[in-house]
Design brief:
This protein is mainly β and 778 residues long. The two termini are 30 Å apart. It contains three helices and 65 strands. The chain is globular, with a radius of gyration of 30 Å. The strands form 16 sheets. Strands 35, 36, 37, 38, 39, 40, 41 and 42 form an eight-stranded antiparallel sheet that branches. A five-stranded antiparallel sheet has the order 1-10-9-8-7. About 2% of the residues have low confidence.
Length: 778
């Protein structure tokens, strides 16, 4: 059993409440407006999204997030259902996992997920009968006892007891009905053994195909036939509702105008039918009692499922708005915790507390995937979406794969796209779209008439010049100078119309550019004279000895650390250039791999992993994201593993990490994965040359607190000594960047007694000092 995270037990109503996390804690940044399922009961409404669930307390409209961060076991939610019989809530997942929520406990039942069934294990939907839940699965039906928290039986109802994809279940009279990919099946509930496929029969005379939803109202059963037609060489879905009166099936043909039926839900003597554009309530006489569409709500809706409660409120899980409450047809409220618009993340940039996310996508060939999500921002604890809904000029912009924040103005952002070039964004408004017509950026050289201008990377230098990689162009590197003018650089001496990826500008002014698809790295140096090409140097680094010595030419990530060393992530682990200033010298140093001790053996750091992200924290430690093994936090030299977070030992949504960004002021580490963003409050912050606003938190330290105490606002790598009021030394440490950590114990490992403690802080030579206090109450 997992407990719902204590710091989220209260029901938050604002985004700022979620921001208050302590060192070592996590929080999610998931899209909560993509509603896929809804249920209600016990005074709460539960709305499921792709990767989480949120609850709304009816009495005060307060939210609570339920995600892997707060105690759920998984991501990839498929359904959520409240059982009025015993107050249990089941949350099902697309991989067959199942969580049971009761009180403050989350109980995981992983029997289906762990089974050796060779079929799709998805739990498509949940149906209750008393204490039992009937799970419609990709292979059949699972009967689950919600009180004993165990699987009671499994029904394989396909041909000869084979697998069949069951999409929905209902009961009527003495029968259980199953809507499947291959028609509608039923069995008598009084049959001696429902696990015997012979107890089940498929209705004949019906259109044979997929039935995605089924429900009973009164003595009738309704089911939706999902059929696909070809119209003008385009495959379209044309759904048809059918009705069974206990004897025969017939067409139930309300005017659906070609809409797709996503859900049928009973409520007393009414039925709520949810289509992809509106919701219809039918009464017991099959007359239309109510219609709710975008016309009635006054805003666009894309509903997934709808249910009615005892107060006659209609609750709608909507793919655009999250959760909608509708009453009197025309009155509506929308609810959703704050979050990004989607869970996609390709690249992130963070400066001065402002986080920007590029959600664009690319194929393995580094070409478009036609992602229209725009970009996201997380500023002052609020998420913003920057796409064609908020800015019509972004309608034609697809696959934004790079974001770079102006170091002097966090509202001024450049976004690199695959196709439209470089978008300049300032204070929520597009100020320019830079392409081949108004800059030195070029159309791809292998399709000169396509108008396609691709930008995978951009970075500012210390003089305010923006360097941009122009993929698949003859002059692959451009710079927008601080004065607004553009220059480009011919790289044909080492490259020929090649894909160019991420770029970093080092403290010394070198430009290091990833060459995707096995190209290695390009290093370019203008020698401080941007306008003079005669002294430019460029060099391609590969796996060849003397030419870079990379462990592989497949490079995925790159970063410069606090010591000026260049860390490179490849599909064969990490490599470090310890003397990058010698790259253009007569005897350049090759990259070196790091040897670590593990289980008594010496091995190369992450040599079997694809390292997709590298980020340096305030203590010069390395946060390394991988494609298959999650996140590693390594010591400054990379020889010691401090943390390893993956799906099994942390709330990490996916072991496929796409990007990492760190808030240097707070130490919060934002981790982008294939299934969304979450963040972890780290121990290191950026240090400064002078003491800032030095303070300790929490302060006072109250009884029962078992976490660490942080001393913040220190000079970089300060020496910290903590004494009691008599001057007896209790603890000493060195700051991690600008923050020191104390576990509240003395040198003997004993908890410090109640009292006032003095914290003496100084830089290395003792010329700068500061004293603060901590109050401990035990």
């Amino acid at each position: 059993m997992r407990k719902i995270a204590p710091f989220l037990l209260c029901l938050f109503a604002s985004a700022t409440a979620f921001a208050q996390i302590a060192i070592g804690q996590w929080r999610d940044h998931l899209p909560y407006k993509t509603g896929i399922a809804v249920t209600e009961g016990g005074g709460y409404v539960y709305c499921a999204t792709d990767n989480a669930v949120f609850t709304l307390k009816k009495s005060d409209n307060a939210f609570e997030k339920l995600s892997k961060v707060t105690g759920l076991s998984d991501v990839g939610v498929s359904d959520v259902k409240y059982n009025s019989y015993n107050g249990v809530v089941l949350i099902s997942y697309r991989n067959g996992n199942l969580d049971l929520v009761q009180g403050l406990g989350v109980f995981n039942i992983s029997d289906i997920k762990r089974s050796n069934i060779i079929a799709n294990k998805i739990i498509n939907s949940i149906y209750y009968s008393g204490r039992y839940a009937y799970l419609a699965c990709g292979f059949g039906i699972v009967k689950f006892d919600t009180e004993r928290r165990e699987v009671s039986d499994t029904y394989y109802i396909g041909a000869n007891g084979g697998y069949i994809n069951v999409l929905d279940i209902t009961m009527s009279g003495n029968f259980i009905y199953a809507a499947t990919d291959s028609g509608i099946f039923r069995a008598s509930l009084s049959a001696p053994n429902l696990a015997d496929f012979n107890a089940w029969s498929r209705f004949t005379g019906l259109p044979q195909g997929s039935y995605n939803t089924i429900c009973a109202m009164g003595n009738r059963v309704f089911a939706n036939y999902s059929r696909f037609l070809t119209s003008n060489q385009t495959i379209v879905q044309q759904d048809t509702l059918l009705m069974f009166d206990g004897t025969s099936w017939d067409y139930f043909t309300p005017d659906t105008s070609g809409f797709v039926c996503r859900s049928l839900e009973p409520h007393g003597n009414t039925m709520v039918a949810t289509y992809n554009g509106y919701i219809v309530t039918y009464d017991i006489n099959l007359a239309v009692a109510e219609i709710v569409s975008s016309f009635q709500t006054g805003f666009f809706i894309d509903p997934s499922q709808s249910v009615r409660d005892a107060d006659n409120y209609l609750w709608i899980a909507d793919r655009v708005n999250g959760l909608i409450r509708n009453w009197d047809t025309w009155t509506n409220e929308r609810f959703a915790p704050d979050g990004p618009a989607t869970n996609k993340v390709y690249n992130m940039d963070l400066r001065q507390g402002a986080l920007w996310v590029a959600p664009g996508e690319r194929s393995d060939l580094w070409i478009n995937q036609y992602n229209w999500d725009g970009a996201f921002s997380f500023v002052e604890e609020e998420w913003g979406a920057h796409n064609f809904n908020s800015n019509p000029e972004l309608y034609s912009v697809r696959d934004i794969v790079d974001v770079t924040i102006d170091p002097n103005n966090t509202k001024h952002v450049y976004m690199g796209s695959l196709g439209r070039g470089l978008i300049e964004y300032n204070n929520g408004v597009i100020t320019e779209i830079w392409n081949d017509s108004n800059s030195t950026l070029e159309v791809r050289c292998d399709a000169p008439t396509s108008g396609w201008v691709g930008v995978f990377g951009s970075a500012f230098d210390e003089d305010g010049n923006l360097w941009v990689t122009n993929s698949l162009s003859n002059n692959g590197l451009s710079v927008r100078k601080a004065d607004g003018s553009w220059l480009s650089f011919n790289l044909s001496a080492v490259l020929n119309c090649q894909t160019l990826g991420q770029i970093i500008v080092t403290k010394s002014g070198q430009k290091w550019i990833i060459l995707p698809r096995g190209g290695g790295i390009l290093v370019f140096d203008d020698n401080g004279t941007i306008g003079n090409p005669n002294d430019d140097n460029m060099k391609k680094l590969t796996s060849a000895a003397g030419q870079g010595g990379l462990p592989s030419n497949e490079v995925y990530s790159i970063a410069e650390d606090e010591d000026g060393e260049i860390w490179v992530g490849t599909d064969a682990g990490i490599a470090v250039f310890y003397s990058p200033e010698d790259i253009f010298g007569n005897d350049p140093s090759d990259a070196q791999q790091i040897l670590i001790e593990q289980d008594g053996h010496t091995q190369i750091l992450l040599e079997t992993e694809v390292v997709t992200a590298i980020c340096i924290d305030g203590a010069n430690r390395k946060w390394l994201g991988t494609q298959n093994a999650g996140v590693f936090l390594m010591s400054p030299d990379g020889t010691k593993e401090i943390h390893h977070f993956d799906e099994t030992n942390s709330p990490l949504f996916s072991n496929n990490v796409t990007s990492i960004a760190i808030n240097g002021s707070t130490g919060e580490v934002f981790i982008g994965t294939a299934k969304g963003i979450l963040s972890y409050k780290g121990t290191a912050t950026e240090g400064t040359d002078e003491f800032g606003d030095v303070y300790a938190y929490p302060n006072p330290v109250r009884p029962g607190y078992g976490g660490v105490i942080a001393i913040k606002g220190l000079v970089k790598d300060a020496d910290v000594k903590i004494t009691d009021i008599t001057g007896t030394l209790v603890y000493q440490t060195k700051a991690l960047g600008g923050q020191a950590i104390w576990n509240g114990n003395n040198f003997k490992g004993e908890r410090a007694r109640s009292g006032i403690y003095l914290v003496f802080c100084s830089n290395d030579d003792g010329t700068k000092t500061y004293v603060t206090k901590i109050c401990i109450v035990n």
